[in-house]
TrEMBL record:
This is Uncharacterized protein. Pfam families: UDPGT. GO terms for molecular function: quercetin 3-O-glucosyltransferase activity; quercetin 7-O-glucosyltransferase activity. Keywords: Glycosyltransferase, Transferase. It comes from Stephania cephalantha. Belongs to the UDP-glycosyltransferase family. Residues 1-20, 546-568 are annotated as: Disordered.
C-alpha cells in the first residue's frame, strides 16, 4: 500500500500496520446497548476498509443473554461480538429488583470482562475501551492496563452535569430532601430498602424492608418489623429510617440555579434520587462519577445543538479535555426513506406498517412507555381509557401487556408487543409520540420531528421531560405530581396535541421540525456530530495511542501517542 495514501479519518499514512482495536462495553439494558451498538456501527462503517486495508476493528462485549437479545449481529466485517457469561440477574426481571441488579452489574462483571480482555489482547492489543459511564470498573481496568477509556454517557448531558456536580446540591442544602408528593414511581413488585438491625451481642443483621402498600418506605420515619432471632424466637423490632427529614412537599418547588449549564430547575424536576429506588442506587451512581474523572474522554449519545450551554459548561469544567457529542446514536442509517416505509423484510413486522399506511398524514398517536419499567395498573387503565376516549387512532407498544391493552382499546388502535420504533416515528402517518422520556426515545422523537406527550416514570426521565416541555417546547406534560392522571384529562391533552389546526399544536410542530433539521445537519458531512466522531478517531486512534502520563506527571489526565511497543 503506498504510504502516501492518507487515512481520511485519522489523517495518517496507511502503512499496512496492524489495525486499531476498540473494545466497547455497554451497560446491560436496552437503553444502553442500543446506543453503544449504534456507535460501534458508526465507527466500524467509517473506518471499515480503506484501499483494502482494515484500519480498525471493534469488539462489542455483551452478556450471553444480550448477545441473544440483539438478534442477528450486524453484517460488518470489522465489528464482532464477544460474550461474557450471564453473571447478573436476567434482563427479563431486572425491573423487579433494580437496586439488586445494579449492585450485581457493579460487582460481578469486571472479572469476566478482564478475562475476556486478556484473551483479546493476546491476539490484538486494545487501543481504546469505550464503556458505559455506569460501568465504573471499566475505567479501573483501562487505567490498570494503560488503555485509554472513553466513557459513554447514554442519558442527557444535563443529567450528566447534575451528577457531576452533585456535591453542590449537598453544599446548598438541597440534598437530602424529602419531596413527598413529588413524581411517583411504582415498580411491579413491592418497593424495598436495605436496613441494618442490631442483634444480640452487638452484631448487625441486614434485611430488606418491603413496603407492600406501594408506599415509598423512605417516606416512613418509623416502622415495626418482626424478626426471628438465632434461637427461633420472634420479637418485634422497632426501627427508625434515617435520614428522613420531615415530609415537606413544598420543597419540590425550590429552584436550583447553580448546576453548570442548566437553566433554573425545580427540585421536583431533578432525577428521582431523593427517595425510593433512585435514592437506594444513588451511591452507586455517584461512584460512577468518581471514576468518570479518571477516564480519558467522555462521549455523549446526543448532538451538540440540543444542549449547547451544558456541553460548553462541561467542556470548561471537566479535567479530561475531550468531550464528544456524536449523536443522536439512533439507527438513522437504516432508514431508507424517512417518511414512509415501502419495503419490509418479513410479514411479521409488516402488518403494523401496513396499518400505519392506511391512515392519513400525522393522524396516529404512537404510545410507548419504554422497555424497562411499568406504571401502576390503575394509571395504565386511565391511560388506556383516556387515549381511547380521545378518538385518536393509535399504535401502542405494550410488551407483555399487549393482549390486555388490545382488548381494552377496541378497534381504534393497534397494540403490538414491540416495534421498530424509529421507523414508526418516521412514518408519515404518525403525528404524536406518547413517551416515557427515555433518552433514546427523546432523541428519536427529535430526529423524527414528532411532538411528544411526556409521561416520565423514573430517574433521568423527569429532567428529560423538562427539556422537552419547558426548554425546547416540543411537547406537553401529561403526568401530575405523583397522582394518577385521570382519563378525561388524558383524552383532552391527546386531542389538543393531535389537533393539526390547533395553535399550540402547530407551534410545537414547527419547533420540533426545526430541531429535527438541526439534528440532521449535525449528522451530515461537516455537521457537529460528524466532526466529533472524526475528532475521536484522530485523538484516540492515531498510531496506537496508549495512556502513559502527561508532561506534568498526572497519569490519569492525558493521552500520548506511544505506539504498540508500550504494550505489556
Ligand atoms: O417497541 C419498541 C420500544 C422501544 N424500542 C427502542 O428501545 C430503546 C429504548 O430506549 P429509551 O427510550 O432510552 O428507554 P429505556 O429502555 O427505558 O432506557 C433506559 O436507558 C435510557 C438511557 O440511559 C434512560 O434515559 C432511561 O431512563 C432508562 O430507562 C429505544 O431505542 C427505542 O427505539 C424499540 O425499538 N421498540
Amino acid at each position: 500500500m503506498p504510504p502516501e495514501t492518507p487515512n481520511p479519518v485519522t489523517g495518517e499514512a496507511i502503512s499496512g500496520g496492524p489495525p486499531r482495536h476498540v473494545v466497547a462495553m455497554p451497560y446491560p439494558g436496552r437503553g444502553h446497548v442500543n446506543p453503544m451498538m449504534n456507535l460501534c456501527k458508526t465507527i466500524a462503517t467509517k473506518a471499515a476498509t480503506i484501499n483494502n486495508v482494515t484500519t480498525l476493528i471493534i469488539t462489542l462485549v455483551l452478556t450471553e443473554e444480550w448477545t441473544a437479545l440483539i438478534g442477528e449481529p450486524p453484517d460488518l466485517p470489522n465489528l464482532r461480538i464477544r460474550s461474557i457469561p450471564n453473571v447478573i440477574p436476567s434482563e427479563l426481571n431486572r425491573a423487579a429488583d433494580f437496586a439488586g441488579f445494579l449492585r450485581a452489574v457493579y460487582s460481578k462483571m469486571e472479572g469476566p470482562f478482564e478475562r475476556l480482555l486478556d484473551g483479546l489482547e493476546a491476539h490484538h492489543p486494545v487501543d481504546a475501551i469505550v464503556a458505559d459511564t455506569y460501568l465504573a470498573w471499566a475505567v479501573a481496568v483501562g487505567n490498570r492496563r494503560n488503555i485509554p477509556v472513553v466513557s459513554l454517557w447514554t442519558m442527557s448531558p444535563s443529567v450528566f452535569s447534575v451528577f457531576y456536580h452533585f456535591h453542590l446540591l449537598e453544599h446548598k442544602g438541597h440534598f437530602p430532601a424529602d419531596l413527598s408528593g413529588g413524581a411517583g414511581f411504582v415498580t411491579r413488585n413491592a418497593i424495598s430498602i436495605p436496613i441494618s438491625i442490631p442483634t444480640y451481642g452487638g452484631a448487625r443483621e441486614n434485611f430488606e424492608f418491603h413496603s407492600t402498600s406501594g408506599r415509598d418506605p423512605h417516606s416512613l420515619s418509623v416502622f415495626m418489623i418482626f424478626v426471628e432471632n438465632l434461637h427461633g424466637d420472634f420479637s418485634w423490632w422497632r426501627g427508625v429510617i434515617l435520614p428522613c427529614p420531615a415530609p415537606d412537599s413544598e420543597r419540590g418547588d425550590e429552584i436550583v440555579d447553580y448546576i453548570p449549564g442548566l437553566s433554573p430547575t425545580r427540585l421536583a424536576d431533578f432525577p428521582t434520587f431523593f427517595s425510593g429506588v433512585g435514592r437506594e442506587v444513588l451511591g452507586l451512581a455517584l461512584d460512577a462519577f468518581v471514576w468518570v474523572r479518571r477516564a480519558q474522554g467522555l462521549m455523549f449519545t446526543s448532538f451538540y445543538e440540543l444542549e449547547p450551554r451544558v456541553i460548553d459548561a462541561l467542556k470548561s469544567t471537566l479535567p479530561f479535555s475531550p468531550i464528544y457529542s456524536v449523536g443522536p446514536l439512533i439507527p438513522h442509517n437504516t432508514l431508507a426513506d424517512h417518511t414512509t416505509r415501502s419495503t419490509t423484510k418479513n410479514d411479521h413486522v409488516d402488518y403494523y406498517f401496513k396499518w400505519l399506511d392506511s391512515h392519513p398524514k400525522s393522524s396516529v398517536l404512537y404510545v410507548s412507555l419504554g422497555s424497562f419499567l411499568s406504571v401502576s395498573k390503575e394509571q395504565m387503565d386511565e391511560i388506556i381509557a383516556g387515549v381511547h376516549e380521545s378518538g385518536v387512532p393509535f399504535l401502542w407498544v405494550a410488551r407483555g401487556d399487549a393482549e390486555r391493552v388490545q382488548k381494552a382499546c377496541g378497534e381504534k388502535g393497534l397494540v403490538v408487543p414491540w416495534c421498530d420504533q424509529l421507523r414508526v416515528l418516521c412514518h408519515g402517518s404518525v403525528g404524536g409520540f406518547w413517551t416515557h422520556c427515555g433518552w433514546n426515545s427523546t432523541l428519536e422523537g427529535v430526529f423524527a420531528g414528532v411532538p411528544m406527550l411526556t409521561f416520565p416514570i423514573f430517574y433521568d426521565q423527569i429532567p428529560d421531560r423538562k427539556l422537552i416541555v419547558d426548554e425546547w417546547k416540543i411537547g406537553r406534560k401529561v403526568v401530575g405530581a405523583g397522582e394518577v392522571v385521570k382519563r378525561a384529562e388524558i383524552a383532552s391533552i391527546v386531542k389538543e396535541v393531535m389537533d393539526l389546526e390547533g395553535e399550540e399544536s402547530r407551534e410545537m410542530r414547527r419547533r420540533v421540525g426545526e430541531l429535527s433539521e438541526s439534528c440532521r445537519r449535525a449528522l451530515a458531512d461537516e455537521g457537529s456530530s460528524e466532526a466529533d466522531i472524526n475528532a475521536f478517531f484522530r485523538e484516540f486512534l492515531r498510531s496506537g495511542i496508549r495512556r502513559d502520563g502527561d508532561e506534568d506527571g498526572d497519569e490519569n489526565s492525558s493521552l500520548r501517542g506511544d505506539g504498540y511497543e508500550d504494550e505489556g
